[in-house]
Amino acid sequence: MQQSVWHTAYGDIVYWQQAQAAARETVVLLHGAVMDHALFAAQYQALADTYRVLVWDMPMHGASRPFMPVSMLQMARFIEDIVEHEAMGAVHVVGQSMGGMVAQYWAQVAPQRIKSLSLIDSIPLNPRYRSKLDAWALKTVPFFTKLSFNERAIPKMAAKIASTAAAQAYVVQRFQDVSKDELIHIMRVLVEGINSANEMPLNMPVQAIVGEHDGLGKVKAYNITWHQQERVPLHVINGAGHNANMDDAAAVNALLQAWIDRASYQRG
């Protein structure tokens, strides 16, 4: 992978890419909160044989630290700037959890940029899917993070996020790498990004992927409702948790490959 750095007034963003000489399509991978680009290691390996692939460490995450707290909307603007700088044209986007939310903001910032969206254990940002009680409960997340986050809590958090031992070990590593202050800032950005979202029409092919045992908040419930109300294709990964793309990489990779190929054919 070729590593690059995108300089901003808020901090530096580190990203990686690999381009195949004959690649006609480009895939951008956006990881979730607290994670880093390694979340997509299995997807990067599978997709890079066919496509040009770009993955980043989201601002405030991994190698993209220190970084001033910025909104998900600003993150979307940053990834648009990077993709424009790399002359990538229209791209397919895969977003996991918070990365899927940034992807939806990106679809509003530059709707012609995105050929297709694959959202893994993420949620639709349209506020119609969340009650006032949901919005209030989200606002308490930073407070309870400050109250409860410590070294002893990390294994329990990992077990809630991932179902396989390898994926849980990765989650433990990521949470051990962030300070409590960094985690609180990330949670505030996440909550504000969800609660401040307006209706966000997604005028490109969209599929939702969710782990069978995703028990993080109401992620699974929102996806089921989204599927029922808007007929968004929903794929449930058996045995997987919130980080479904790590828990069962083969199943998720097959879904991504088929979706990208279908969208590429439709768009010509």
Automatic annotation (TrEMBL):
Cross-referenced Pfam families: Abhydrolase_1
Residues of the AB hydrolase-1 domain: 26-248
Keyword tRNA processing: no
UniProtKB keywords: Hydrolase
Coiled-coil annotated residue ranges, if any: none
Molecular function GO labels: hydrolase activity
Matches recorded under PANTHER family: HYDROLASE, PUTATIVE (AFU_ORTHOLOGUE AFUA_2G14860)-RELATED, MONOACYLGLYCEROL LIPASE
Record's protein name: Alpha/beta hydrolase
Species this chain originates from: Vitreoscilla massiliensis
